[in-house]
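Re: Re: ligand-bound prediction request (bumping)

Still looking for help on this. To restate: I need the protein modeled with alpha-D-ribofuranose bound, output as structure tokens. Inputs repeated here so nobody has to scroll up.
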Amino acid sequence: MATIRNVAELAKVSTATVSRVINSNGYVNEETKKRVKEAIEQLNYFPNDVARSLFKGRSKMIALFVPDITNPFFPELARAVEDVTNRNDYTFVLCNTDGDIDKKIDYLNALQQKSVDGFIIVSSSLTEDHLKNIQAPIVALDRIISPDISSVTVNNRIGSRDAVNYLKSVGCRRIAHIAGPEHVDNAINRMRGFLDEVKHEDWFDSDYVVSGAYNFEMAREAAINLLTKNPKIDGIFAGNDLMGAGVLNAAASLDIKVPGDLAVIGFDGITMSERVTPALTTMAQPIYDIGARAAEILIEQIRSTSQVVMREEFNVQLTERQSTLRREQTNEH
Ligand code: RIB
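Reply:
Sorry for the wait, this slipped through. Here it is.
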């Protein structure tokens, strides 16, 4: 297979000139350009992406790391990142890390070898130390990696306080929380927001916080145990919508009416939350906006030499649906 060097020799120019003709960047006089194009055609030469990246130093590729592609939140996030990267002529690469630190490091090393232009990372385990040898710009999305790495997140703690106060406003008197993974910063902040609003209540008990690990099945099991042991609970705030759906499933298996006996609110605003029965009230994250903004910040950093750390926080939005209707609003009397 012909190489860039073969083309240069045939056209009697340098490899740098051949690269300028291929990439249309930098001045090449018309006669030389014609000779190079004839040589490319005669040798049937195709620029190899790796060669191009080595020559130009970059691959025009952006990678997004997510911890769990089976959670609908992440495909919705990836959609936004892909739209913005493609619109800016970058190839988009999605890496599912399963929250596994070794897998993340393997992906980082492999993509560094391919001269990827930048990384957008959703991770609770990668630290600045893991990233110290990465030359390409990095933006943390959804979860903060370090104060020295740009990030795009939402107001998890305030949004959770709003969720609990909303449950109180629809008449809930004993409220529990299904929490996300204890090592994930946004799950910790959502739990803190819950505690901000209930820890002073005379009915509050530490048993009213159980872990659902951001997972449907684990949240369902935890909710069955919680509601069986604490039948007076009439409101549940789930730290994400998948767990909220697990709570709805648990209530149905215990013949607990939602709404009516129990009000349930989630967090995320994934499309699925409006499709479950009853439709799930949620604190909706601007999923598309945070993904798009992370991609914009990364592309700005790739194109500029200044690496100013940007930290942007978006607001979540209460989205009321059937799962929190007041008793008098339901048909059940
Ligand atoms: O549902 C997945 C959760 O993990 C979301 O709440 C999102 O914030 C991510 O951190």
